[in-house]
Amino acid sequence: MLSETPILSLENLSKTFTLRPAFGRATQVNALRNVSLDLMPGRALALVGESGSGKSTVGRMIVGHHTPTSGRILFEGQDIAELTTRADQMRYRQAVQMVFQDPFSALNPAHTIRHHLLRALSLHQPDADPETALRMILEDVELDPLSTPAKFPHELSGGQRQRVNFARALAVKARLIVADEPTSMLDVSIRKSILGLMQRLKDEHGLSLLYITHDIATAEYLAEDTAVMFRGQVVERGPTAQVVGAPQHGYTKLLRAAVPDPELRLTGSDAGFAAEARRVRGQSAHDVQAFREVSPGHVIAEHAEVAHA
Ligand SMILES: Nc1ncnc2c1ncn2[C@@H]1O[C@H](COP(=O)(O)OP(=O)(O)OP(=O)(O)O)[C@@H](O)[C@H]1O
């Protein structure tokens, strides 16, 4: 098992954005700093962090929306920057699908669900009987196969739309789904059912999942492994039971206490704790110099003394 090739490896991935305001000087944002992660086939990796930590930049780079400033992305051991033929690039784009926070964003409001899914099926499963495949896929994502196909995206609830997005990933026979905050725009009452759906897709279809979230508690529902990011760096990673259940890095402990930002949440008698939270955040922003293994497969970052964010 341990010798298995990861379906996805990120190797020292960095991304610097240059912001060029209409007036004034260009500034640079180090959105990612030397991020290295492995995702094993058929497993889920939760990528957790507060807003601005760089999670979405990781997801968008994997699906090719951004190119790395440095570092490599390997899919089944192959550097995706070296996929030069159009056929190889198409295969990668089909195998790796992204599900976004806004379930509307990837659906065309002018087309029915049947249109969306049949189009994906005809391109990627040309030998399948389209009506049978459509029905099976809708059942797989727990949507009514009789009433759903004729509907337009606006006639579905947010949760149902998100299910259509997962159905589309199944239709193109995706092997890895990058789900970027897939439940955060949905009603609290249905968030758990979408996590349950992802769990089933992983277990029954052998899909691999990169689950991007700001909510560390939800990692436990779904992900065997968890990586915590802060200011563009991974600060802790390992089995979810350890990272979430017994965090060892100061920043992960803050996240577990649901107080990643002391400025926003702590006042009055909590002021002592707020000061400690500020200290941990300041220290955690420094460059990661090394990772220390605290239990098998569970590592935490050791930071430089001087900030260089
Ligand atoms: N296209 C871009 N141009 C310039 N800066 C960007 C761009 N995309 C992201 N950034 C910056 O990179 C940093 C990381 O952003 P990113 O969206 O990856 O974080 P995040 O953890 O996903 O946060 P959120 O949950 O708010 O999306 C932020 O400082 C952000 O402002």
Instruction: Report helical residue fraction.
Output: 25-40%
Major sheet strand order? 6-7-8-3-9-10-12-11
Largest sheet: 8 strands, mixed
Q: What is the approximate shape?
A: globular
**CATH architecture descriptor:** 3-Layer(aba) Sandwich
What is the highest CATH level, the class? Answer: Alpha Beta
Task: Name the hetero compounds present.
Answer: adenosine-5'-triphosphate
Number of helices: 11
What is the gyration radius calculated from CA atoms?
A: 20 Å
Give structural notes.
The chain is α/β, with parallel strands linked by helices and 309 residues long. The chain has one domain (8-237): Rossmann fold, CATH 3.40.50. 36% of the residues lie in helices and 26% in strands. It is built from 11 helices and 12 strands. It has helices spanning 55-62, 86-95, 113-124, 130-140, 158-171, 188-205, 216-222, 240-245, 250-256, 262-265, 271-284, and strands at residues 8-19, 27-39, 44-48, 70-75, 78-79, 96-99, 176-180, 208-213, 225-230, 233-239, 288-295, 298-303. The strands form 2 sheets. Strands 6-7-8-3-9-10-12-11 form an 8-stranded mixed β-sheet, sandwiched between helices. Strands 2-1-4-5 form a 4-stranded antiparallel β-sheet, with helices on one face. Helix 5 (158-171) packs parallel to helix 6 (188-205). It is globular, with a radius of gyration of 20 Å. 38% of the residues are buried. The mean pLDDT is 91. Bound molecules: adenosine-5'-triphosphate. Adenosine-5'-triphosphate binds next to strand 1, strand 2 and helix 1.
